[in-house]
């Protein structure tokens, strides 16, 4: 099973990708993991990507595409994979199609996780992180601490990351609408897209996603 997972920031793609990949026994390939692995291993692509990132520039598509290609050619991806964060734009989607065609493969499904924009802002802007341990995460609405601004686990100060501010979230949504959302129409033309509500408990969203996949 070869799947692309699409959705705005805050839709829960990472969470759903992990569950789906486990259920389907295929690797979860995320753009963030690709970059971290290539940079830490100091691969040629990783060093190139780091040079752009250190200069505050966007990493060119061809570097991201090269990392994805290398990862999809690994042995554990022979029977399929779940892509999360790639392709990020139509150019990357076209490159992915060309890669798969060259290997006599094709995508089985594109799952579009749908969340209202106001809910995205609420989910992300409500997050609070512990300054002592970033793995201690709370939410002002969904999982508030017992005492406002104080971590339940260690008593550390809770704060909102700059990336989680409402203004930043809305800018990230604009980028998503401009760059990534067009790939949904690209894949709709191929009859691959199923739109799934990402509202509700995680397990229910996973169930909807599993039911939307073609039978194997």
From TrEMBL:
One of its GO terms (cellular component) is cytoplasm. ATP binds at residues 10-15, 127, 137-138, 200. Residues 127-163 form the Adenylate kinase active site lid domain. It catalyses: AMP + ATP = 2 ADP. Keywords: ATP-binding, Cytoplasm, Kinase, Nucleotide biosynthesis, Nucleotide-binding, Transferase. SUPFAM superfamilies: Microbial and mitochondrial ADK, insert 'zinc finger' domain (SSF57774), P-loop containing nucleoside triphosphate hydrolases (SSF52540). Its EC number is 2.7.4.3. Its main location: cytoplasm. Residues 30-59 are annotated as: NMP. Pathway: Purine metabolism; AMP biosynthesis via salvage pathway; AMP from ADP: step 1/1. CDD domains: ADK. GO terms for biological process: AMP salvage. GO terms for molecular function: AMP kinase activity; ATP binding. Pfam families: ADK, ADK_lid. It is found in: Cytoplasm. AMP binds at residues 31, 36, 57-59, 85-88, 92, 161, 172. PROSITE patterns: ADENYLATE_KINASE. It is an enzyme of class 2 (transferase). Monomer. Catalyzes the reversible transfer of the terminal phosphate group between ATP and AMP. Plays an important role in cellular energy homeostasis and in adenine nucleotide metabolism. Belongs to the adenylate kinase family. Consists of three domains, a large central CORE domain and two small peripheral domains, NMPbind and LID, which undergo movements during catalysis. The LID domain closes over the site of phosphoryl transfer upon ATP binding. Assembling and dissambling the active center during each catalytic cycle provides an effective means to prevent ATP hydrolysis. PANTHER family: NUCLEOTIDE KINASE (PTHR23359). This is Adenylate kinase. It comes from Streptomyces coryli.
